[in-house]
Amino acid sequence: MKVTVVGAGNVGATCADVLAYREIANEVVLLDIKEGVAEGKALDIWQKSPINLYDTRTVGVTNDYARTANSDVVVITSGLPRKPGMTRDDLISTNAGIVQSVTQNIVQHSPNAIIIVVSNPLDVMTYAAHITSKLPRSKVIGMAGILDTARYRAFLAEALDVSPKDIQAVLLGGHGDTMVPLPRYTTVGGIPVTELIEEEALNAIIERTKNGGGELVKLMGTSAWYAPGSAAAQMVEAIVRDQKRVFPVCIKLEGEYGIDGTYLGVPVVLGKNGVEKVIELKLNDQEMELLHLSDKHVKEVMAVLDNMQSGS
Ligand SMILES: NC(=O)c1ccc[n+]([C@@H]2O[C@H](COP(=O)([O-])OP(=O)(O)OC[C@H]3O[C@@H](n4cnc5c(N)ncnc54)[C@H](O)[C@@H]3O)[C@@H](O)[C@H]2O)c1
Ligand SMILES: O=C(O)C[C@H](O)C(=O)O
To answer: Where is substrate annotated to bind (predicted)?
Structure first.
């Protein structure tokens, strides 16, 4: 299996590293526009192979899409990360152009690839890549839900002093303040989380999860990469190993949850064909209301992109 990661910055290089050392692909091509950066990072990852014992070949290129040809999966991480004081939506004007030109190149050289978008603002960049690619919705999806859920699970594991491995959770909606964690679907070793934690403590964890990206931006002056890179690699693994994993991913909704045309995070089955099924949960009125608020916000940012494209 051949996987290309576009953008050899913090997230892209981390993703390529995880793909390599976990032998998720036979070949990983890392591509960036900055001369030499992808080559250097791919070489560094390859030089780690005798230490960490893996066979994955890693290749770095500067904007040479011919070298990415016939990739099975392509991960797009190219674009600016936010700085303290910025929202993800502030990145739209720079990142939309980058994501769209990258997508055109990918589709030209790897027409059968499944595309995983990571660049922010995530839901709208998934929209941008999808309309540019003209591929079915099942093949152009965004990574955010695995990351947001991982943050929620990690915070819960810390609060309950249990293994993060035993916490299962699902989260819906856009990748931002309007994301919708679902305590009703959160379990700890099969036990509903509400039986193990006070409501106030759980609400504090939900709020911290919603601000999870911003917390790290404030600490580091740029956004996170270890968990995001690993989350994107986990999506690649589900596809190349046809694992049929159930993950929250960003996809165009076509009537599910009463929403049509918005790109939002929902649980799906992820396998060799990309999204093989969108899972529709039976939400209660409050959960549905929160999801529709998220839908409203993402729609507004999608409209910003539409206006940019039409020049108005
Ligand atoms: N979806 C998520 O959950 C999530 C999580 C973390 C970061 N992100 C986003 O991912 C993106 C990358 O973050 P980062 O921390 O890796 O940033 P970074 O600045 O470290 O890396 C971005 C890389 O993209 C490259 N690039 C820019 N334009 C390009 C082009 N046209 N072609 C190829 N490469 C190009 C840059 O040269 C740079 O190396 C940001 O938009 C960030 O907001 C999303
Ligand atoms: O917060 C950001 O800007 C990056 C990413 O979306 C994250 O949640 O870590």
So the answer is: 82, 88, 120, 151
Q: For the residues 203-231, what does the mean pLDDT come to? A: 97
124 is an annotated ligand-binding site residue? no
**Active-site residue, from 109, 175, 292, 297:** 175
**Residue type at position 155:** F
Q: Which domain holds residue 209?
A: 145-307
Query: Are residue 264 and residue 303 in the same domain, yes or no?
Result: yes
Please name the residues in contact with 128: beta carbons below 8 A apart, sequence gap of 6 or more.
96, 99, 100, 103, 305
Q: Are residues 180 and 289 in the same domain?
A: yes
The verdict on whether 130 is a catalytic residue reads: no
**Quick one: DSSP state of residue 179?**
-
Tell me how many domains the chain contains. 2
- At 62-90, the pLDDT tens digits run 999 999 999 999 999 999 999 999 999 99
Neighbour tally for 272: CB within 10 Å: 14
CA-CA-CA-CA torsion sign (99, 100, 103, 105): negative
Distance spanning both ends of the chain, measured CA to CA = 43
Q: Where a domain ends, among 107, 142, 177?
A: 142
Q: ipTM for the complex?
A: 0.99
For the stretch 254-283, pLDDT in tens is 999 999 999 999 999 999 999 999 999 999
- Pick the last residue of a domain from 142, 169, 188: 142
- 171 and 134 in a single domain? The answer is no
Query: Could you tell me if 138 and 17 lie in one domain?
Result: yes
**Do 112 and 130 sit in the same domain of this protein?**
yes
Q: What whole-number distance in Å separates Cα of residue 168 and Cα of residue 306?
A: 37
Residues 87, 304 contacting (CB under 8 angstroms) = no
7 is in an annotated binding site: yes
Domain CATH for 200: 3.90.110.10
Between the CA of 194 and the centroid of ligand 1 the distance, in Å, is 37
